[in-house]
Amino acid sequence: MADxxxxxxxxxxxxxxxxxxxxxxxxxxxxxxxxxxxxxxxATLIVPIAVRRIIDHGFTTSNTALVNQYFSVMIGVVLLxxxxxxVRFYYVMWLGEKIVADVRDTLFEHLLSLSPSFYESQKxxxxxxxxxxxxxxxxxxxSSTASIALRNTVxxxxxxxxxxxxxxxxxxxxxxxxxxxxxxxVTYGRRVRVLSRAAQDKLAASAAFAQERLSAIxxxxxxxxxxxxxxxxxxxxxxxxxxxxxRTLARAILTAxxxxxxxxxxxxxxxFGAQEVISGNLSGGTLSQFVIYAVIAASSLxxxxxxxxxxxxxxxxx
Length: 318
What we know:
The chain has one domain (2-317): ABC transporter transmembrane region fold. The longest helix has 53 residues, at 226-278. The protein contains eleven helices and no strands. The protein has helices at 2-17, 20-24, 27-58, 64-113, 116-121, 124-166, 168-175, 178-215, 217-222, 226-278, 284-317. Helix 3 (27-58) runs antiparallel to helix 4. By secondary structure, it is mainly α. The chain is elongated and about 90 Å long.
């Protein structure tokens, strides 16, 4: 069953993989964005180490110079984080805008080459919706969604690595919660994908209805069909809203489950770590460092669970 679910998930993302030729055109910009992403992630992961050292060694009058040194380094790290984050944001958003522009050009060129029989069987409004709304959804995947996904993936891997380095015992306990976090993703992933596709289809149908009626507005008005047409469009809009609401509810349940399990696990780890500090097996600074990394890992995992829904939306649009 797990293999089947994994295969279906990979298959559902295959339309996005087919867009990689558009990415290859801008490999330089992608390289710059990735370098900036790595720098920003490393800068973030350095901060907990400085916090640990300040807690364990810094709060005495004899270590004033050491405290000043640590805070000076942290200011430099924050500046590096700010600059690298700005560079990453610019290039990732630029890539999203550029790729969707290329996709629209290619799609429109293809639409112009289709035979008249295609347009006899397809609604013009729905085709226009694919050209506008669906490509906009793809833009989101290649810009903000991709940026969030990549950043949180790197942060999650880095945070887990540093958790193991900081305290293998606490890291082992944290690992017990991973199956509980992954389970909702597997359970709700397919449902969110199905509901996302349904919502996009309903939205396209309502856009197609509006396009057809507005293009024949003279006929509608001459036959006094304004009221009937208005009710039909309202009905189509209602169906589109209902589908979107179901999709949003599924994503909300997924987000709640992830947040509860992840943050609940951190609370449990904090309690166990406090017992270790009291017994003298762990320093207060080391516990603080571990908890910060655990919060980073949990936050990254929560963000990944949210953007997974956005990626499913983009796959349906593609």
